[in-house]
Amino acid sequence: MNHGVYTRVQDTSVSTPASVSVGIPFIVGAAPVSDADADTRANLNKPYICYTYAEFAEQFGESTNWAKYPLCEAAYVYFKLFNVGPIVVCAVNEDATAEDYQTKVIAGIEYIELCKTQLGLVPDLILCPGKDNVSAVQAVMLAKAASINEKYQARALVAVDGATYTAAITAKNSGSFNEWGIVTYGYPKLGDLQFHGTLFEAARMTSTDNDNGGIPYESPSNKYVPMDSLVSSTGTVLDLSESQANLLNAAGICTFINQGGQWTAWGNYTGAYPASSDVVEYFIPVARMFDYVRKVVTNTFRDKVDKPLDRRLLDSVNDSVNQWLNGLVGAGYLIGARCELLSAENPTTDLMAGIIKFHIYMTPPGPAQEIDFILEYDPDYLETLFS
User: Fold this and answer.
1) Per-residue pLDDT for 165 more than 90?
2) What are the tens digits of pLDDT across the range 184-238?
3) Is the pLDDT of residue 7 over 70?
């Protein structure tokens, strides 16, 4: 028997959205690990997160031989040129033969599956600089980007080569690319330093995400990149005009152009374009916003799994999602969005089996990639001569 005043705390009916990582690259390649400090060097074939260039150098060593050690190039691009991070790297054996090295890179891509449990995050950009132009590696990158831990998504940064932009378009059209890949053409240079275009594109995406509070709703296109020339894989200077770069874009290829003395990334399409007519597949920021929303709801409502499937649970999830979506709309990250629980999508047999489906409708803003002005002569203004 109780006698007095008692209290208890009711579980909050609205869940706080989980914070998720955005613009985090997972980069596979060789590094001079044997040159790093023996007491601190990182292990091969496992994901490792680095927050600064100094930390990377301590764990993996330093080298300017980026052809042999592409992870050193990646650390330089992210931490020194773009001043963004962190990066997740997976170092593979530096002394492998060319054929064995490619095999090790392919195997290394799979280690992104360990990031969630070992690092507490899931990278959303996949890079293999130096091998991202090889079809066998590209295929694995694209497949992994579509499904990480069977529930998360990423975008694979892949490259097409060619002595000319027309050759690059031919390579893209004859390849096997889809919405999970962002295809780049050209190698940026800064002085005597030459870089992989995929690293520049990825770092520009991370920088743009950071500028927007970690929300990937804006395209990396038409934004500054630190370079002073662009070359082909053979070292030939690529002096692309805007119209030539637009032809690359029309083939679903991103590149870099010089606009009045400032170099920028140029291109809004994923590798699905022009074959796909689905805006969710072909526009980079729209596709990434769908990835972002999927990741947030997956992480936020994990604790609801195996709760009693009753009205309180359904209202809690639906209300929580709608409150969060309304916040994204209010901030301008989405044009409109809502979450609904539709009876047509939840048959009795599914409910009996413990399966419930929520339907999210959302419209991220696409990039304003063409702005037209119409000019017309208006003779009525001649009347002002007599007023």
Assistant:
1) yes
2) 999 999 999 999 999 999 999 999 999 999 999 999 999 999 999 999 999 999 9
3) no
**Both tokens of residue 288?**
């990434």
Secondary structure in 3-state letters for 121-184 = CCCCEEECCCCCCCHHHHHHHHHHHHCECCCECCEEEEEECCCCHHHHHHHHHHCCCCCCEEEE
Residues paired with 266 in a beta bridge: 255
Query: 359 and 241, same structural domain?
Result: no
The mean predicted confidence, pLDDT, of the chain is 94
Residue where the block lists tokens 């869940």: 15
Higher pLDDT, 263 or 6: 263
Domain boundary among 252, 287, 322: 287
Q: Are residues 210 and 318 in the same domain?
A: no
In a shared domain, residues 59 and 197:
yes
Give rounded-to-5 percent helix, strand, coil for the chain: 40, 15, 45
Separation CA 328–CA 17 (nearest Å): 12
Q: Does one domain contain both 235 and 340?
A: no
Q: What residues make up the domain containing 134?
A: 25-287
